[in-house]
Structures are given as C-alpha cells and as structure tokens.
Design a protein that fits this description.
45% helix; eight-stranded parallel β-barrel; alpha/beta; 8 strands; 12 helices; TIM Barrel
Length: 251
C-alpha cells in the first residue's frame, strides 16, 4: 500500500543542530537481504536509533516497500543507492525517492555538476527538506585506487574538490571518511552535513573499509552523522551496542 509523505520531516539544520540527543547523529545500516531481517534489527534496536540506511542490497532484494514500511513506522530512512547517471535519469530517480518519504539519499559527486544540480532541484520540487548527499571518495578506496582510475593526487584533495562541486550545485551534505571531515568542516562551515561511513567501535574488524575511525573520532573530526552497520546489527544485543555508541558520541 502506498504510504503518504510524512507531514513534517525536520530540516537538515535541525538534524545537524539538535545534537543534545546523540541519536540525531547515528544511522544504523540495514545491510541485510530481507525485509524480515531488517524489521528484526529495527525492533531489536528499539528507540536507540532514529535513522536507518537502506542500501543497494536490501533495496534490490525487497524494493521500495521496505522503505515505505520504515517510513510508515516513524523511522527516518537514508536511501543509499548512490545515483550516478545522466541528469534526467537521476532527477527522475530522486523524485521517486522523495515520494517514498526518505529523509536522506545519495548521489555520486563524480556524476558532474549538471547531474548534481538536477538531483537537488528534483528533491526540492518534491520535498524541500530532503537531504541530497554527494558521495565523494568511497571509504574502501585509497590513493593507489584513485591513481588506477586516473585520479592523481591525495584522497583529501579529491574529497575537497568533489565537495566543492557538490555544494556549488545545491547539495547540503556529503559522504566521506571522517579522516577528511575536519578539513571539510573548516572549508564549508557548520551547516554542511558530513555523513561518515567506515565507522567502527574500537576493537571491531574493519571488513572491506580502508579509511576507518571510531565513532568518537568521527564526531570529534566534524562529522554530523555516522553510519554503523555490523557492529550494531550483528551484535548479540543490538540495542545495547547502539547505546554504547551513543555514549561515545554524546560526550
């Protein structure tokens, strides 16, 4: 059943500035293959998180209904499909995502200024509060990886260049490692949303991530939001693990 857009989704300024509640900073990644598994995680985390990431795996397996169900249940959804195509195609996809009621979504900054502008204009036309985040350099990549695809220079330089392109074309946030967050915060000021994946509590495995930091390090570096998946979702007690992370980032 089609779910209507929420009556009011908080503006990004509210999401970034209302930091007394550390849950505003935490996004739990639902990197699972079924809606049932996702619902089990959401139930287990309970009120320890407000926002959930639906990425390529879950969306491909279950489609838009999983997003509608989360929104209908009062959860914020970060739709992480990293749109990267010609401007008209991306604009159409963003419009459809907005109709689903998502609060945040991703596009690739490397898709060009025209594509980014088309995405942000489509979002604004459907829901001015929808936050379009530009993905800069994936946290699985390092300078050797960039060099192999013809991008020369440091990761930091590439992140900064793509972030500037994104901001110039209407994006109000970016996705990058917390290792680059401090410089971006200095360059773009307090209002830019900086969402950092590749966050692992101390002692956790890094998986396929390269540029990894702890939750506290990410927030201290200037991140406005952190994305945490397996350390919470694979925990024996996901709610307790989420609370432990909230304690680290709420100090």
């Amino acid at each position: 059943m089609q779910t209507a857009l929420p009556q009011r989704i908080p503006l990004i300024s509210n999401l970034v500035s209302d930091l007394n509640d550390p849950r505003q900073k935490l996004i739990v990644a639902l990197d699972v293959s079924t809606a049932a598994a996702a619902q089990k995680i959401v139930a287990a985390v309970g009120d320890s998180a407000l926002t959930y990431k639906v990425g390529m795996q879950l969306y491909t397996a279950e489609g838009p209904r999983v997003v509608r169900d989360l929104v209908a249940a009062g959860r914020r959804v970060f739709l992480d499909l990293k749109y990267h195509d010609i401007p008209t195609t991306v604009a159409a996809a963003v419009s459809e995502a907005a109709r689903l009621g998502v609060s945040m979504l991703t596009v690739h900054a490397a898709g060009s200024g025209k594509m980014l502008r088309a995405a942000t204009e489509a979002a604004r036309a459907q829901n001015p509060a929808l936050l379009v985040l530009a993905v800069t350099v994936l946290t699985s990549m390092d300078e050797n990886d960039l060099d192999k695809i013809g991008v020369h220079g440091t990761v930091m330089d590439e992140v900064s260049r793509l972030a500037a392109l994104a901001v110039a074309n209407g994006c109000r946030g970016v996705v990058t490692s917390a290792r680059e967050a401090s410089r971006l915060r200095a360059e773009f000021g307090p209002d830019l949303a900086i969402v950092t994946p590749g966050v692992r509590p101390a002692g956790s495995g890094h998986g396929d991530q390269v540029r990894v930091v702890t939750p506290a390090e990410a927030i201290a570096a200037g991140a406005s939001h952190i994305v945490v998946g397996r350390p919470i979702t694979a925990a024996v007690d996901p709610a307790a693990e989420a609370r432990a992370i909230l304690a680290q980032i709420g100090r």
